[in-house]
Amino acid sequence: MKLIKWIFAGIAAIAVLVVLYITLIFDPNDFKPMLVDAVKEQTGRELVIEEPLSWQFFPSIGIRLAGVSLSNPEGFKEAHMMAVKEVVAEVKLLPLLSRDVQIDQLRLDGAKLTLVTTKQGKSSLDGLTGNTASADKPADAKHGPGLNAISIGGINISDTSITLIDEAAGSSQTFTLSSLTLGEFTPGKAAPLAFAFGADLPDMKVKGEGEATLTVSEALNALSLAGLNLEVNAQGDSLPKGAVTVQFAGGADVALEAKTAKLTVDKLSLMDIEGKGAIAANYGKKVPFVDVELAFGAIDVDAILGTEKSETKADTATTAPAQKEPDLSGMKAVDAKLKLDIAAVKVAGLSTADWALRANLAGGVLKVDELKASLYGGKVGASATLDGRKVPAVYSFNKAITGVQILPLLKDAAEVDLLAGTANFDIQGKGAGLLGDSIKRNLNANGKFEVADGALYGVNVPQMIRDAQAKLKGDLNAAAGGEEKKTDFSSLTGSLNIAAGKANNPDLLMLSPLLRISGQGGADLMAETLDYKLATKVVGSLEGQGGDTALAGIEIPLAITGSFTEPKFALDTEALLKGQLKGETDKLKDKLKDSLFKKLGGNQ
After folding, report:
1. Alpha-carbon span 293 to 336, nearest angstrom
2. Is the four-CA dihedral 544, 549, 555, 558 of positive or negative sign?
3. Strand 567-571 vs strand 555-562: parallel, antiparallel, or unpaired?
4. H helices within 447-572, ranges in order?
5. Counting Cβ atoms within 10 Å, is residue 114 exposed (0-12), middle (13-18) or buried (19+)?
6. CA–CA separation, 442 vs 502, rounded Å?
7. Which residues make beta-bridge pairs with 385?
8. Using the 8-state DSSP alphabet, how is residue 185 labeled?
9. Any idea what DSSP says for residue 30?
């Protein structure tokens, strides 16, 4: 027992001697001037350590710094780029006895980082990669004893805030870093990194965490993040369904001197949307440039928003607040090139596929050079320009639709089964304003359309004519039979012009083996109503071969009124009677004329 006691007593004595040696012989303040001068030489900044460097013996041996700050370059309104409440460097004991400082863990708490970009484009980060002192440069004697070596086994950061100030834009943003842990760190070598962050914004709360492998170049002028995995959760009433989760996997590279960055997206998951691609940026230019190339899978906007079409329409009509034209002047803050591919998009009930978008943004003007997609058995292609320099924004477009099956499109878009057939449609236009009513009111456009091998639903024009003819012959009980309310046609063509909230179609022409319908009309886009005056001419037998052709050649007025969703068709029976009487009168005149010629001995 006495032997064990003596052993413990010896260990305690050794520990006391080590502590005495460290506290009395090895003074960390001997290196304080070295740190201050090294920072001044490397960056031109002032490093201030307000409190004396001291030893910490619990929970481990470490050197403690408190009240540390690093100044901004000269000419900045914010005096400090960084201020730290406390820094503790936990060190290995045995190497320390030979003046070899090996830091097991560097802990930083309560750091406040303020990064300023001035109106002249200068940044708080400028000049942080100064000339490195020669490795074999001897320590200045006035600074006290030198160090044989120094290394850092890891870094732990907590309770940190980062404030970004852009004096040109007059903006300030603050983010919080709850924790950051970096493994063994040496310039030029990879180190594991993990972090967690959060933000309380006016309309939402954000929390996130991630991990990666960090490599900083030996010259300290470039860094890369490999194997970056990130998950962000946001909650707020302004978000779809009140919450959004984003998952990201990829990497990032930043060149500090060239001021370029690239984000590689191996996987992006956002509310059931999957994507990949890359985003490159050059932030050293007067106007930053961003090159975006992304590809996404199927996107169901209706499912994301969690609303049905009918519910959306009802809410818009009854509860939607007054809307304001969006201010797109922020488009001038960045130039961009965009290449976007989407496998499929479903929005407002419409199903589309194979989207491809190629666009450029410069000086606040977005030019869509190419936009194409597959649409209900056909194709849509378009080009457009959006000028966001003014409010309301100004736009122009050129669109072509070919081979689209119009009936399923109308059913999905507006729950309307008005028209069927294969549609081709060309239209060019321009306007101002991006809200629904602004588009309807300010759009100026013209185009032409053609629908082949189709049908007009809601009316059976041959049946209407047969019923009207029967009534004219005295059968007042004649009524439409059980035939489907549909008028088949071989072609439907016309031109279209839109202005002041009105759509005008001056040359509608519908051809079928039985009928020829022509005329003009239009629609009130604001009220969503129709007004067409058409002339219907029977060119074949309404009963088929050998049937009654008494109405052949007679024009019968047909009116189309009502709303987009509930059109009304009316046949002018009075005009039908007049047309028939005129036909009989013309026949009688012809007979009298023939008889007169015969009596006079003339030839016809």
Report:
1. 11
2. negative
3. antiparallel
4. 461-472
5. buried
6. 10
7. 367, 396
8. B
9. G
133, 83 contact by CB (below 8 A): no
Burial class (CB in 10 A: 0-12, 13-18, 19+), 65: buried
**Mean local confidence (pLDDT), 383-398:** 93
Residues 528, 406: Cα–Cα separation, whole Å = 19
- Specify whether the CB–CB gap between 452 and 422 falls below 8 A: yes
Burial call 321-345: b when 16+ CB within 10 Å, e when fewer: eeeeeeebeebeebbbebbbebebb
| Average pLDDT of the residues of the chain | 78
Three-state DSSP at 367 gives: strand
Go through 365-402 and write b for each residue having 16 or more CB atoms within 10 A of its CB, e for each that does not: ebebeebbbbbbebebebbbbbbbeeebbbbebbbbbe
C-alpha 255/C-alpha 277 separation (Å) is: 20
Least confident range of 353-367, 490-504, 537-551: 537-551
Q: Is 157 exposed, middle or buried (0-12, 13-18, 19+ CB in 10 A)?
A: buried
Question: Do the Cβ atoms of 249 and 228 come closer than 8 Å?
Answer: yes
Q: How far is CA 25 from CA 18, 149, 220, 281, 568, in A?
A: 10, 19, 35, 53, 102
Q: Which residue did the predictor score with more confidence, 588 or 76? A: 76
Closest C-alpha among 91, 171, 82 to residue 128: 82
Backbone angles phi, psi at 230, to 5 degrees: -140, 140
Six-digit token string for 225: 């993040």
Section 361-383 average pLDDT: 95
Distance of alpha carbon 325 from alpha carbon 345, whole angstroms: 25
Peptide bond into 59 cis (omega under 30): yes
Number of residues written out for the chain: 604
**At how many degrees (to 10) do helices 461-472 and 573-599 cross?**
70
pLDDT at 143: 42
Alpha helices by DSSP H, listed for 21-47, are 32-43
pLDDT tens figures, 391-417: 899 999 999 999 999 999 888 887 778
Degrees to nearest 5, angle at CA 445 with 443 and 449: 135
Window from 320-329, 382-391, 522-531, 554-563 with minimum mean pLDDT? 320-329
| Predicted confidence band of residue 62 (pLDDT cuts 50, 70, 90) | low
In the chain, the amino acid numbered 424 is N
Nearest to 493 by CA among 478, 479, 506, 477: 506
pLDDT above 80 (res 338): yes
Q: For residue 139, what is the DSSP state? A: P
Residue 367 in contact with residue 385, Cβ under 8 Å?
Answer: yes
Tokens of 357: 């978008």
Q: What is the DSSP letter of 602?
A: -
Find out whether 262 and 226 touch, Cβ atoms under 8 Å. Answer: no
Q: What's the token pair of residue 445? A: 């456009």
Q: Pairing mode, if any, of strands 149-152 and 100-117?
A: parallel
Instruction: Give the whole-angstrom CA distance, residue 160 versus residue 172.
Output: 17
**Which among 213, 128, 208, 199 is positioned nearest to 164, based on CA atoms?**
199
Maximum CA pair distance of the chain? 162
Phi-psi region of 389 (alpha: psi -120 to 50; beta: other; left: phi over 0): alpha
State yes or no: cis peptide before 326, omega within 30 of 0: no
Q: How many helices (H) and strands (E) does the chain have?
A: 9, 28
Q: What is the pLDDT of residues 307-319, one digit of tens each?
A: 554 444 444 444 4
